[in-house]
Amino acid sequence: MAGLFQKVLIANRGEIALRIQRACRDMGIPSVAVHSTADAQAMHVRLADESVCIGPPAARESYLNAASILSAAIVTGADAIHPGYGFLAENAEFAEMVEAHGLTFIGPSPAHIRMMGDKIAAKAAMATLGVPLVPGSDGEVTRIEQARAVAARIGYPVLIKAAAGGGGRGMKVAHDAEGLEEAWRVARAEARAAFGNEAVYVEKYLDRPRHIELQVFADATGNVVHFGERDCSLQRRHQKLLEEAGSPALTAEARARLGTTATAALARLGYRNAGTLEFLYQDGQFAFIEMNTRLQVEHPVTEMLCGIDLVREQIRIAAGETLGYGQEDIAFSGHAIECRINAEDPENFTPTPGLVEAYHAPGGLGVRVDSALYAGYKVPPFYDSLVAKLIVHGPTRAQAIARLARSLAEFAVIGIKTTLPLHQRIVADQRFQAGDYDIHWLERFVAGT
Ligand code: MV4
Predict the structure, then answer these.
(1) How far is CA 247 from CA 213, 307, 429, in A?
(2) Does ligand 1 lie within 6 Å of residue 44's CB atom?
(3) For 197-242, how does the pLDDT look when each residue is reduced to its tens digit (9 = 90+)?
């Protein structure tokens, strides 16, 4: 593959580092793994062509240490950096720093990363481009009187959200005019403490939406395609547990409408590389809430649905290649579901780092496991508790669910507690099987109510 990169440094760990390493190897591109001292025995390091220790266990001093990672790229002769998800993936300053040193950041432009990091700017851009939004304030709300006026116009309940937020932090509901000032003050204080930015905006609170996101891809020539939606409504405390592609709630007509609107908008924005638009979907209506400028944890369900390697596409586009196909060339086949297996107690979700004494992954047609686990591996206590993703595909949703139940039963992670038993309960549930759930369903299911 001449014209691509000489070498790619993978600025991440665990299953996603391995995922990116595999794409590089499939493309004939050498890659460099980085690791903290706590990850010297990690699978992404053991399977690497080359690896560099970038610092001590604390992420701030290793996987978030931009100077250390950039130095590792330079000394190993890498000419591109893939950030994976989390860590530095949506850090516009890091992307700028990479480019300033003559390397390629495998992702969107720093300007687009920065724009989407500000939820107010992201919403303003999408509104201009004809993407529907949740009714709310026109931009930032700096005074309580302004919040009152917006709430009076759109009606209660309303949500106060932090411009720098996302993932549910700095978000407060006001059910009525009496509760507005308190919600406004708390949201601003939380936003200032968490993000150093107290800017907030107001939205109508939707009481039972589904969380639906659309995977988009754009090349430098302005060709934009989408790879369909994912339903990510099954979350607990803003942590996704299970994702599906496509959504059991969407008709083909709704899916087509969403795709056409979103791709047209991103083309006009001049966006490049992978992106995900997040929507709330309620009563047959989509409303844009946020955009993610990274590869997402749940990207494999989209890959299984479309038969496309999204990491390969990211690398090709970053190297200046065109997509080379249009929307009409993308075929959606069957149904895919992912379970996130965490090293957590399935009863109370406390992390369970420790020694994996034995390990057996499921297999068979339509079954994929993305994991960096192995027997004898010690899950370190310093990082995210995601240790495996089980992804299944089937010709129909019912067949995908059957494969999922069977695969969960085969999956053995011995020595540490994981969330496997919780997934077995979810998949056996009649409401899940019917596809009849919204963003609140899982919290109630876990609480046993
Ligand atoms: C909302 C909402 C209801 N109405 N916005 C939570 C995280 C952030 N990404 C957006 N979030 C929400 N925004 C309006 N106008 C409900 C949520 C929400 C949620 C969204 C997606 C998935 C799970 C969720 C759990 C609680 C609240």
Answers:
(1) 9, 17, 17
(2) no
(3) 999 999 999 999 999 999 999 999 999 999 999 999 999 999 999 9
Tell me: pLDDT of 58 over 80. Answer: yes
Tens-digit pLDDT profile for residues 366-416: 999 999 999 999 999 999 999 999 999 999 999 999 999 999 999 999 999
User: How large is the greatest C-alpha to C-alpha distance in the chain, in angstroms?
Assistant: 64
pTM to 2 decimals? 0.97
Q: Is 230 a catalytic residue?
A: no
Q: What is the CATH number of domain 8-106?
A: 3.40.50.20
Identify the CATH homologous superfamily for domain 135-204. ATP-grasp fold, A domain (3.30.1490.20)
Within a 13 Å sphere around the CA of 243, how many CA atoms are in the beta-carbon half? 26
294, 312, 368, 403: the active-site residue? 294
Please tell me if the CB atom of residue 289 comes closer than 6 angstroms to any atom of ligand 1: yes
Decide whether any atom of ligand 1 lies within 6 Å of the 159 Cβ.
yes
- For helices 119-128 and 110-117, angle between their N-to-C axes, nearest 10 degrees: 100
d(CA 404, CA 398): 10
